[in-house]
Every structure is written in structure tokens, then in C-alpha cells.
Design a protein that fits this description.
There is one protein chain. By secondary structure, this protein is an alpha/beta fold. Helix 6 (152-163) packs across helix 8 (188-202). Strand 9 (132-135) and strand 10 form a beta hairpin. The chain has a 5-stranded parallel β-sheet with strand order 2-1-3-6-7, with helices on both faces. Strands 8-9-10-11 form a 4-stranded antiparallel β-sheet, with no helix packed on it. A 3-stranded antiparallel β-sheet has the order 12-14-13. 41% of the residues lie in helices and 23% in strands.
Length: 222
Amino acid sequence: MQKILVVEDDRILSQTICCALKKAEYIPYPVHSIEAAKLSYLQNTPHLILLDVNLPDGEGFLFCQWIKSRSSAPVLFLTARDLEEDALTGYELGAEDYVTKPFSIKILLKKIDVILKRNEPDSASYYNDGFLIVDFEKAKTTVSGKECVLTPTELRLLKQLTAHGGQLLTYEVLLERLWDHNGQFVDKHTLAVNVNRLRKKIEDKEHKYISNIYGMGYQWLG
């Protein structure tokens, strides 16, 4: 379930928003000041921030700056300040949207859904199950929180497997996708060596990812 930080000092409105978020199967974290918002953000790492502009300890614009200096999490302003200059400031700071009060809860939920879908990482370029995290575009892999160095061949092999989870990838299919496009010839033995090296780097007793379907190919179990 996706987590949403609700930074709103109007407690009744905050309760209304949080109730609607729960019904829509989000996890809301309500706070009423910038300092509380910073603490909640660091503790919970929300997927999206709903942010008022007028807060007891400063303007929401300041918190938006703080967020954007640390994260790419989308920010959606909810505010009574309807001046064009304020809306432009919000967008210039990197906000996804600027909604003025009063607003429709149904429309707010739709906006949240659209923003979160737009900001979802491409499943083909990113894998994360909590133990194994792979950013294929940046060629960065972490295993149990520790950086793991993969060779280019191991990374391409891992991308093919994760992109086809649960499917049998035959030896021939893997060899064609991994090497044939470069005009290189690699036999099944070399493929097996790469699979075994990859297993040693990303698996442990509790986390088994790659199954060898004898005589046929490999299957991703993650």
C-alpha cells in the first residue's frame, strides 16, 4: 500500500482527507506543522505529500524545498491561497499540482491516483522486493542493504529474468537476448557459469531467486 503524508493544520479537514485515503487503500500520515512533517517524512518515506501552504511554523513552500532537495517524491499543494503568484511558486518549486480550497475529495483522489501512476518506476528498469533492489538504468544493485557489483553480462541476465518472473526462459532464448545481438557466440556452459555467479551474489538461505529447469532453461522465482 502506498503511503501519503498529509501536512494540514486544519484538523477536521485533515481527518476528512485521511478517512478518504484509507477508504481508497492508502496509508495516510497526518501532521500539522513543518517540523512534524520533516520527522514523519524521515520515519515513513511517503510516496506522495499533500501539503498546505499556511502552517503554524512557516510556509509549505519551505517544506516543499526541503523535500525536493532530498527526494523525488511528488508534492500536491492543498491551500486556501488562490493567488496566481502562489500557484506559480508551487509549480516552480516542483509541485505536481496546486489545488485551492474548497475542493472535491473525489477529484483529489483521482489526482493522487494519476500522480502516483505517473511517478511509478518502470518495472522493466527497476526491481525491489526489500532484500534485492536493482536500478537497471543506473546499473546499481543492493542486496540486504549492501551494494553488490554485477558484471554487465550478469546485469543483463538479471534484467531478463526479473522482467519475465515465473516464466521459463529457455537456454536458446536467453542466449539470443543476451549475446546474439552483439554477434557473439556463447554456449550453455558459459550461461550456466554466469547464472551461478549471479546466484552467489544475490541469494542466501532465505532468498532463492533462480530455478534451473533441467534440460530447458531458467525461471525467476522472486
